[in-house]
Fold:
Amino acid sequence: MSARTPKTDLIRRHLEFLRFYPESVEGHYNLGLAYLQAGELEDALRSFERALELQPSLTEALVNMGGIYFRQGRIEECIKANEKALEISPNLVQAHANLAFAFLRIQEWDKAIEASRKVLELDPAVAMAHYHLAIALHRKGKNREALDALEEASRLGLDVDSAFAEQLRSLSTRTRGVGRAKRSKK
Structure:
């Protein structure tokens, strides 16, 4: 007799439900979540796609699909899924956060900054958005701003990389000193 795990039990229950209600948006979406929780990404994608066929405005399915695409290294598809979700509902914090992370991955620093700032405009308490903003700002050479963002992420409880923080402190101090030196020569 095989041992059942709570995850496979949940999948089994959702499949059973869908036998009786095959057109249930919630049933397909919840099955997708159960597959996602069990690490069965392709099955999760199929379930989210079916939920979207039944209800094309289901932004949660698009955002979850974007997350799966990211995990699979399919960054362009991740971006498209999250952008589609934002076309339907422009203020989805998670979709903007997913975009920021995806843009960091492909080194689109300006887009990562824009997406991170949008997350923070919608919810300033998202520590990871401050962290992503810090990374992108640093890559653009804006180390003082990056340090401020990193310190805010830390203040909000994110365990930040101390070596990165020290590097930003050092760079932002040097940058400030250079700016003062240039002004004093004038």
